[in-house]
Specification:
There is one protein chain. The protein is mostly helical. Among the domains are: 39 residues; 33 residues. The longest helix has 36 residues. The chain is elongated.
C-alpha cells in the first residue's frame, strides 16, 4: 500500500522534478560557457547605481521620517521614566481612591 502511494506521488511529481533539474543544469552550462568566453557576469557590480531625483527625495524623506519617529520615541521613553521616578507632590492624592487633599504642615 505504501509502495503504491510512493509510486503515484513519484509519477505525479516526476515531470516537475525533471524540469527543475534540467533548469539547474542549463544554468550551470550557461555560466560555464560565459566563463569560457572570458565574459564576467560581475563586471559592473561595484559601480555606483544611478539614482533619479525622485528616488533620492524618497530616500531622504524616509531617513527623516525614521529619524523623527526614533527621536519622538526616545523622548517619550525618557519622560515616562522620569514620571515613574518622580515622587508625588506633597498635599496631592497618591492614588485615585484617596481623594482628600492633605493639609500642608
Amino acid at each position: 500500500m505504501q509502495d503504491e502511494h510512493f509510486m503515484r506521488q513519484w509519477s505525479a511529481g516526476h515531470s516537475q522534478f525533471s524540469a527543475g533539474i534540467a533548469m539547474v543544469f542549463a544554468r550551470i552550462a550557461r555560466g560555464l560557457r560565459s566563463r569560457m568566453r572570458g565574459q564576467s557576469p560581475i563586471e559592473n557590480t561595484y559601480e555606483e547605481p544611478h539614482e533619479t531625483p525622485l528616488a533620492r527625495k524618497a530616500r531622504l524623506v524616509m531617513i527623516a521620517v525614521i529619524g523623527g519617529v526614533t527621536a519622538g520615541s526616545g523622548i517619550a521613553a525618557v519622560l515616562l521614566a522620569l514620571a515613574a521616578m518622580a515622587p508625588p507632590a506633597h498635599g496631592q492624592p497618591v492614588t485615585a481612591i484617596r481623594t482628600t487633599v492633605l493639609p500642608l504642615a
